[in-house]
Amino acid sequence: MKETAPIYVTKPFLPPLEEFQEYLERIWTTRQLTNKGRYHEQFERELAEYLKVRHVSLFSNGTLALISALQCLRITGEVITTPFSFVATTHALHWNGIRPVFCDVEPGSYNLDPRRIEAAITPGTTAILPVHVYGNPCDTEAIREIAETYGLKVVYDACHAFGVERDGGSILNFGDLSVLSFHATKVFTTFEGGAIVSHDDATKRRIDFLKNFGFAGETTVVAPGINAKMNEFEAALGLLQLKYVDRAIGERRAVARRYRERLRGLPGISFFEDAPGVRHNYAYFPVVIDKDAFGKSRDEVYETLKSHGIFSRRYFYPLISQFPTYRGLESARPGNLPVAEEVTRKILCLPIYPGLEEPDLERIVGIIAGDAPRPRTP
Ligand code: T4K
């Protein structure tokens, strides 16, 4: 069989290099490399407009944005969160001295299950930290109701939810704050990067102090802030990416549709369909593999794909609550999170990115289905 290039779960979309060159030349000329440079300011404005949100505060990555969002709201004590996410979600709590309380996810979306949140609330609970996992919107209405009833803050980890809309409005407008990631593996990348979306001027100001050591002017520090600023190179890339992101999401949509066509009907394989009224971003293409019906386990499919040079990922396995760092927590005990415990054994994220070619997709599906793998034509 012909040697083929490896295929990874994702491949970052980058704009034409010549276009970035122009931005680099300006950075070289002005020597403004970071600290609220021209591109930073322009990107913040244009991004807020693109996302249809009031305020964006740019960050150097999503993790520091999450940590700062919790700091900004002075969240303490216990926070209810999902075990089915990237570990940074829970780390952000730990770095704030907050005790994570894991709550199970819903069977249909794998997002935090609002019906289980109430049972996890104690007098120490101050907030909820849900994740729009894979970019699928949480049940924001039910979460809002619970938060209002119990006087809790809500910080959405929206690191997968760039550009996701429901009924024409941004999903980022829910909760007290939402946090984005622009990591290389995300739908929208600035190499590394992130942001906090906020809804009023005072909160935006406070977030901006926090990410710049707490400085509120040349000689005043109003909080023990951190250095989490986005630099000019990342902001310049962000500006350029805005020109291309709709096209990139369109290409992802086409890949997702093709996967669905080809996988539909395979017994034991299930996947998300588009939800009514939702503009999805197709950040991931997760499939759930039921061994009894399919004949092969998730791990067998993962290993087979790997042996063919196709690197799918088991996002999110293990659960955060199963890592040695967190498994000692009361809410992490086996059996407490049955839906999450099941999905983490069955989920596999297939490669999806703009430019994933049809023959490659056919090969991936062929290997999963157990057909003879087709060599790629040069
Ligand atoms: N909350 C949630 C829900 C998150 O998913 C994340 C990040 C965060 C918070 C934190 O945001 P950041 O602080 O990262 O901004 C990746 C990412 O490192 C991580 O950002 C992401 N979630 C997580 C879901 O996935 P890995 O360990 O799987 O990445 P890695 O390096 O194995 O990359 C996967 C594949 O992507 C590679 O096999 C090849 C391709 N790739 C990767 C990179 C980095 C490229 O083609 N180019 C690249 O530069 O964690």
Descriptive key words:
disordered C terminus; binds ligand T4K; alpha/beta; 3-stranded antiparallel beta sheet; 378 residues; 15 strands; 37% helix; 15% strand
Structure report:
Helix content is 37%, strand content 15%. By secondary structure, the protein is of the alpha/beta class. β7 (165-166) and β8 form a beta hairpin. α1 packs antiparallel against α8, α3 runs parallel beside α4 (88-94) and α8 packs across α12. It starts with 6 loop residues before the first strand and ends in a 9-residue tail after the last helix. The relative contact order is 0.17. Residues 8-12, 61-63, 85-86, 88-89, 131, 157, 159-160, 181, 183-185, 194, 311, 313, 315 line the site of ligand T4K.
Tell me the layout of helices and strands.
Layout: E1 7-8, H1 17-30, H2 38-51, E2 55-59, H3 62-72, E3 78-81, H4 88-94, E4 99-102, H5 114-120, E5 125-129, H6 140-150, E6 153-157, E7 165-166, E8 169-170, E9 177-181, E10 194-198, H7 201-210, H8 232-263, E11 269-271, E12 278-279, E13 285-289, H9 291-294, H10 298-307, E14 310-311, H11 338-346, E15 347-350, H12 358-369
Parallel strand pairs: 1-14, 3-4, 3-5, 5-6, 6-9
Antiparallel strand pairs: 2-10, 7-8, 7-12, 9-10, 11-13, 13-15
Question: Summary?
Answer:
The protein has helices at 17-30, 38-51, 62-72, 88-94, 114-120, 140-150, 201-210, 232-263, 291-294, 298-307, 338-346, 358-369; strands at residues 7-8, 55-59, 78-81, 99-102, 125-129, 153-157, 165-166, 169-170, 177-181, 194-198, 269-271, 278-279, 285-289, 310-311, 347-350.
